[in-house]
Design brief:
Elements: E1 5-10, H1 21-32, E2 44-49, E3 78-81, H2 86-90, H3 99-108, E4 112-116, H4 119-125, E5 133-134, H5 141-147, E6 152-153, E7 159-161, E8 165-168, H6 172-186, H7 188-197, H8 224-232, H9 241-247, H10 252-263, H11 267-285, H12 290-297, H13 302-313, H14 317-324, H15 334-338, H16 340-343
Helix pairs in contact: 1-6, 6-7, 9-10, 11-12, 11-13, 11-14
Organism: Streptomyces alfalfae
Domain HTH araC/xylS-type: 225-323
Pfam family, one: HTH_18
């Protein structure tokens, strides 16, 4: 299994804002730090600058010099534009010279194109978002939509996976998208282990809200953790909002509101996300038939499993298993997994 190659564009010759270092550090951390126990070799990372800035012209005297220029985009499997200079967003200044052409050429060669935050403006300028659904930080999506009317801008989601072109909102949503790419490339187990090392949630689906009106509930939500763990251990059983609320000693309405406030998703969608993640783990680590995977993950029939799996993961369960079987921690036997349910206690 190969992780592939990633080029991260550093668009900085007119001064790299220091606050954009956050978005830039995300792909460098995810794709640049070797993880030999998870996949060896790890990603081959290149930092590709659009120019050579004068530190005196940059915010706080900060400038970045990289081993590659835009020629480094040639031959890589994934190109990430973490951001573009503020002037390109706020004032409509041109992109750094040659950037749009280099992005178009990389896409034409078959590279997967990715933007984080304002990097979407570069993909849009290159014409790569025309006719596609895309997102950016919610503070900039109105400008993106007005400037590029051929782009279907969604200002509410964390990220959009349109196959060969992916876009994310700003800040931590960029990390969600990068972990999503690792999940696509190397499987759920590798992505989950990497997220654990980074001390971040293993999987936030792209459709979750960019921001939550009540990001921190007014009341103490210490009671949510135990009930969610309880639910994860019983995904093969029928579970309703009433069941979860009863376990949390809340009314269904209160539980619904507090879970949505804490996670940005509804209880039923949270359950579906957990069940798909459970199916991924079973497909990676067991040889169970698809019918049994559907049963143990709580997705029911094989057809129902295929429907939700294809919708969320983007590939059929059988194709996913062919790509990632053995990437999980243990290759469990069918007999062992089939006996799990009967051995579990309340």
């Amino acid at each position: 299994m190969s992780a592939g190659s990633v080029a991260v564009v550093v668009a900085d010759e007119i001064g790299f804002p220091s606050w954009d270092l956050y978005e830039l550090s995300i792909p460098i951390t995810v794709f640049g730090k070797p993880q030999p126990d998870l996949c060896d070799p790890w990603y081959d990372l290149r930092l590709c600058s659009t120019g050579r800035p004068d530190p005196a012209d940059a915010d706080f005297g900060l400038a970045l010099r990289t081993p590659y220029g835009l020629e480094g985009l040639a031959g890589v499997g994934t190109v990430v534009v973490a951001s573009v200079p503020d002037a390109c967003v706020d004032e409509g200044a041109p992109l750094p010279a040659g950037l749009a052409e280099a992005l178009r050429a990389a896409h034409a060669r078959g590279a997967r194109m990715v933007s984080l935050c304002t990097g979407a403006f570069a993909l849009a300028e290159a014409g790569l978002l025309d006719g596609r659904r895309a997102t950016a930080h919610w503070m900039h999506t109105a400008q993106l939509a007005a400037r590029y009317p051929k782009v279907e801008v969604d200002d509410s989601v964390l990220y959009v996976d349109d196959g060969s072109v992916l876009t994310s909102a700003g800040m931590t949503a960029g990390l969600d998208l990068c972990l999503h790419l690792v999940r696509r490339d190397l499987g759920a187990h590798v992505a989950n282990q990497l997220a654990r090392r980074m001390v971040v949630p293993a999987h936030r689906t792209g459709g979750q809200a960019q921001f939550i009106d009540l990001a921190v509930p007014e009341t103490d939500d210490a009671g949510l953790g135990p009930v969610l763990e309880w639910a994860r251990g019983r995904l093969d059983r029928p579970l309703t909002v009433d069941d979860l609320a009863r376990r949390a000693a809340m009314s269904p309405r209160t539980f619904y509101r507090r879970l949505q406030a804490a996670t940005g998703t509804t209880p039923l969608q949270w359950l579906l996300n957990q069940r798909v993640a459970r199916a991924q783990s079973l497909l990676e680590s067991t040889d169970l038939p698809v019918e049994k995977v559907g049963e143990l993950s709580g997705l029911g029939t094989a057809n129902n499993l295929r429907h939700h799996f294809l919708k969320q993961v983007g590939v059929a369960p059988g194709d996913y298993r062919r790509s990632f079987f053995g990437s999980g921690p243990v290759r469990e036997s069918s007999a062992a997994r089939m006996s799990e349910g009967s051995a579990r206690t309340e």
